[in-house]
Amino acid sequence: MITSLFKNTIIGYFLILFISVGLWGFSFLETDKEMMVSLNFAGESYEISKRIAIVISFFSTLISGFFLNNRLNKYLFSYDPNNLFLLFYMMIFSVELSNSSFLVYDIVSFLLIIFVYYLLSFITSKNDKNQVFNSAFLIGVLCFQNLFFIAFILLLIQNLSTTRRVGFSELTLILTGFLIPILLVLSLSFLTENYRLISSLWQLEFKTPVVTWQFIVFVSISSVFSFLGFQLAANKRSGTDINTLMLINNLIVYFLVSLVVGIGSLFVFPQYYVVFLFTLPVSIFLSFYVLESSSRWKELAFLALLALTFLLR
Questions:
Q1: Confidence of residue 195 (pLDDT cuts 50, 70, 90)
Q2: Which residues contact 190 (CB under 8 A, 6 or more apart)?
Q3: Which of 46, 136, 156, 261 could pair with 39 as two cysteines, CB 3.0-4.6 Å apart?
């Protein structure tokens, strides 16, 4: 079986490394040596060689994906450790290499992976004040890239409420963590008389979304299989592993909030941005589907899901 090749073994890691090198290597070789890409974040713009950006993207995506893959194996797949998340994550994220802003997506993706790590840790951490504050702080930083990330505040509160009572002190901690990066930027802007960072936070240029049929097919099919993966995982753990079931339910909320942020972002960012937002939660639930499904068509569906990413290339 093809899916068995991606167990949590040396062979599994080697195969994913080989595939990733092929995807990023192809993009590297077809890029002109003189080509530059822009790095736009919080109103500031920088240019860097696209080849260098591709190399940075390869290592940052692989390392961050590997980190979360290990955490997921600890919290969600301990009964059957595998590297399916890492495979789907690298395959889907490689689609972004055709976008000029892919390096910004790498930075934001790294922050999102840390954010998800904190969400996972709420279940087992007895003193989670630091994680709560850090999560809110990350949301504040992310809002400089996309103001729609403010919706993640509700996600944070929802995830926290599944493990403890959220009172005034918790809400104050979240608000403080969220506001600190914004207040720091405000202070720095006034001291240096550079107000571009402030204006970038509030200036949203809405435009009519441009959506291709390939995008609609990819998002629709991957979402359907993600929800199937959620149902399979939730049904298997219903009444047996409460903590894992709680994490699964929290992650589907993360998926839905990402969907809301993605829909709003379509009016500001290109369609590739929405694919990028989906990469993390979709990769998790597609892994659940492949792992939990008993369908005789599972292997074929697995290959079809991987092939689906080539629609957007």
A1: low
A2: none
A3: 46
Residue of 311, 295, 143, 131 lying closest to 214 (CA atoms): 311
Task: Give the pLDDT of residue 44.
Answer: 63
Handedness of CA 203, 205, 209, 212 (dihedral sign): negative
Neighbours of 2 (CB within 10 A): 12
* Percentage, residues of the chain above pLDDT 90: 38
Three-class SS string for 10-67? HHHHHHHHHHHHHHHHHHHHCCCCCCEEEEEECCEEEEEEHHHHHHHHHHHHHHHHHH
Q: Which run of H or of E encompasses 83?
A: none
Handedness of CA 119, 147, 261, 216 (dihedral sign): negative
Q: Where are the domains of the chain?
A: 3-312
Indicate yes or no: pTM above 0.85: yes
State the alpha helices, DSSP H only, in 122-167.
129-142, 152-161
Phi then psi dihedrals of residue 162, to 5 deg: -80, -15
Could you tell me if 257 and 152 are in contact, meaning their C-beta atoms sit under 8 angstroms apart?
Answer: yes
The whole-number pLDDT of residue 135 equals: 93
> What are the tens digits of pLDDT across the range 154-191?
999 999 888 888 888 889 999 999 999 988 888 877 77
